[in-house]
Please model this.
Amino acid sequence: MAKTLELIFATAAGKEVTLSVEEPRENVTPLELQAGMQTIIAQNIFEVEGSRFATAKGARIVERNVVEYEV
Model:
């Protein structure tokens, strides 16, 4: 089963942005996620259409089953 951690931010312009992390650590805690997201905001690493990340809106882990077939 493939897992992806999605970190959801809002920019200063109000646009929602999602950063995805493939195969996150199993035991990541909400406090670690919150601290990491605040660090991303404080470091001003990313911007979208000239607008920096302003707030952390949430995080989620998405699980999906992938079945590959050789043809």
Observations:
- Residues 51 and 64 are 32 Å apart (CA to CA).
- Helices lie at 30-43.
